[in-house]
């Protein structure tokens, strides 16, 4: 299987969709509120690049990085922030006049308040969401590792898959060649913004993976003329 076909296979797997409503539950347990948040995210965040599956990856990778650095995270904060950090990209919350991270940070309390989430931790969730993008500066452990996980998800095979998934299959915008600058921009900008020791340790491999993909893609498409 060629590298291009492999990445396209990844893009086909990039969306995980479940369908169940979120609901209030007085006296809900920790597992109850997590289930409600998971179901809410799966129902509402359907997109191949920044949907539910991306949130799940961010959550898992943030934990992996923190474990490698021997850092203890508040899992309540990380779970809520990871699963809801991109809600500002989706209707009815999306506001084209505002950054999606700020929209999500300002909205997340209204989603969590009736789930049983320990609301005394909401400020940390809001902070982690607000700084999850690679070009922002995180404060606190949960914010740091969510930030780095989110940045790393733009690199490697999954980074290529996410961007390729944006191509309009019906011939609209963007078309194939138009997404290449997004990949090259990620290569140039993202690595320097990964901050944790464990995150930085993963940058070279993911960067090389994406560079190799672009090299092979150019070779197989007459320098993108046939892409």
Q: Largest sheet, if any? A: none
- Report the radius of gyration as a whole number of Å: 18 Å
Number of strands: 0
Average pLDDT level: 89
User: Helix and strand string, N-terminal first?
Assistant: HHHHHHHHHH
Euclidean distance between termini CA atoms: 18 Å
Q: Are there runs of 5+ residues with pLDDT below 50, and where? A: 1-28
CATH topology: Hypothetical protein af1432
What is the general shape?
globular
Estimate the helix proportion, in percent: 55-70%
Count helical runs.
10
Q: What would CATH call the class?
A: Mainly Alpha
CATH architecture: Orthogonal Bundle
Secondary structural class: mainly alpha
Question: How much of the polypeptide forms β-strand, as a percent range?
Answer: under 5%
As for the number of domains, it is 1
Protein name: HD domain-containing protein
Keywords: Signal
InterPro entries: HD/PDEase_dom (IPR003607), HD_domain (IPR006674)
